[in-house]
Amino acid sequence: MTALLWAGAGAAVAFVVVFLLDGLTRPGYRPVRHPVSALALGDRGWLQTTNFIVCGLLITAAAPALPAQVGSVPLAVVVGFFGLALVASGVFPMDPMRGYPPGTPEGTPTEVSRRHQLHDHAGAAVFTALPVASLVATFALPGPLWTWFSGAVTVALFGGFHAFGQAWENDSARLGLIQKLVITLGWSWLALLFVHAAT
């Protein structure tokens, strides 16, 4: 079980590292402008697709090991759901839009594919499950450090994901930056949760 927990922690860290490095080196991709999901498009799209699926599967596999270590079945269920939603985000990539891949018109199409709609649903599940997990952890994990840390992360994630949603609706030039900051915070909290459970 400990190995699974370490795998979950590694997956959460690797997810962030991969999309940051890929985004910084991908021709035509603007990290401040474009969302992480756009990296699943284009010639190198397989890399982010793999990132979604492998990391999601490892997090899902690690979730059942949490109750024995932290004593919370609800926390494990929400984390497992988060992992599965991450997998779905990779299985159903978004449509090309907003200038990526290069040559794609700027702006959002008036009609999107069913695949894109499923990606949106999966993304909503991801961005809801993680703050719910940190909220559960606020009350489930012993000790004031984890109570206050998880509580602060919960507030930041709900606020951050709302800010990203507004940025997406307004086609903000900084929506990619907002999303990446929030993802980095949330996935870092998840990695620390797994490390805490493993040790």
Automatic annotation (TrEMBL):
The keyword Coiled coil does not apply. It holds the Pfam family DUF998. The chain crosses the membrane at residues 6-24, 45-66, 72-92, 122-140, 146-165, 177-198. This is DUF998 domain-containing protein. The keyword Membrane applies. It comes from Actinoalloteichus caeruleus DSM 43889. InterPro entries: DUF998. It comes from the Bacteria. Keywords: Membrane, Transmembrane, Transmembrane helix.
